[in-house]
Amino acid sequence: MDKKAISPQDLEWYEKSYEDKDDSLVLERAVSHNGINNSAADYKADEKMKRVFSVEVPEQHVADQKQSGRCWMFSALNTMRFKIAENYKISPKFELSQNYVNFWDKFEKSNYFLENVIKTADQPLGSRKIDFLMETPQQDGGQWDMLCAIIEKYGVVPSSTMVETYNSNRSDELNQTLNLKLRRDAEVLRKMVKDGSAEEKLESTKSDMLNDVYRILAYSLGRPTKRFDFEYRDTDNKYHMDKDLTPKEFFDKYVNINLEDYVSLINSPTDDKPFNETYTIEMLGNVVGGRQVKHLNLPIDELKDLAIKQLKNGEAVWFGCDVVQDSDRKKGIMDTHLYHKDALFSTDLKMSKGARLDYKESMMTHAMVITGVDLVDDQPTKWKVENSWGEKVGDKGYFVMSDDWFNEFVYQTVINKKYMSDKQLEEQKQAPKMLEPWDPMGSLASFKK
Hints:
Blueprint: H1 8-20, H2 24-34, H3 36-40, H4 44-48, E1 55-56, H5 71-88, H6 98-119, H7 128-135, H8 144-154, H9 166-169, H10 172-194, H11 199-221, E2 228-233, E3 239-245, H12 247-255, E4 262-266, E5 278-281, E6 295-297, H13 300-312, E7 317-321, E8 327-328, E9 333-334, H14 341-345, H15 353-358, E10 366-376, E11 379-386, E12 398-402, H16 403-409, E13 410-416, H17 422-428, E14 433-435
Parallel strand pairs: 4-6, 5-14, 9-12
Antiparallel strand pairs: 1-10, 2-3, 4-13, 5-6, 7-10, 7-13, 8-9, 10-11, 11-12
């Protein structure tokens, strides 16, 4: 037998070690019947996560992304509706149309993909970059800068103007169909490049492909709004009507924020990304010629300090995290002390944040909104979070996140530049270093509820 193989003697030793452990059979019955998380849960951790916060922004109706991976989109639009509610006394149940942004995001991602196909057509099938590109031509997920690129080009509309559809709420069928179409188109374009087709012919063919994509999206999501009347009653029951607006006019008038003022900050404590430098990711984006994804890497304490400043000024904070780690979605708790799996299995499961990123144990999977923080002696102990999974989880859709969980599993925040120090602003202006397409900081927030 190969020395590296598991031998019968090894198996005997493993079995004896198991039987010699006094509580093995008790734990086997408990874990096999109740599951790992239930068996490892520390219910005392719930007591520390009381939903009281010293700093909060006003609550609003919690939106529901349903069976789609549009968390990044929902959370970003949720931060923007705070402004509308504050300035125009609009009902807390008011929402901006996620489906409108979704349509344009998928359309632009399709063009972005086809452009990358043409640019990389000289690379062989089976190369890591081509495999990466073909793995997911487009998807529901995204990052903050990608949302900004869509809004800067297309604006936004109220949800009543372009409502959700079956395919926006349940995106699997649309994604499968659209990705089939795009992979087929990739085959055609790669062959054309190999055969020496002229650039004009490539662009003409790509335009025909995008015409098909538009039709698929219009059938599935509805045609995007061009002009509309904005009609509402404010919280004082006063009637308002604003006629014949374009989506960009609506954004400029009612949302009225300069997206250039908001920048992405990350915490990636890995050797390849020194702090206080900026980064971008190859082949990550949606709008060709639009806003570039750009991150400034900072120590975690600086991310938290800036988030607190923004919250104290009455403004929520968009953030990206790994929501599947140490979280109870039903209770709405995210806490590193929630489960003790290492004690349950008598093994060491500890990894540093940097090691989790390097060894693919963790990455950004979900985006939400920080709406409050509890400060004790000016130090954060827990954070209030607005999710986008509807009101049936957590406390009517709101979650609580321990400060330790923030340290370990929050990877990105979006902050208004006015809260940043002069040093941070200078660092943010740097030209970004290009990271590989598969870098964990290029992961897209796309977790489905």
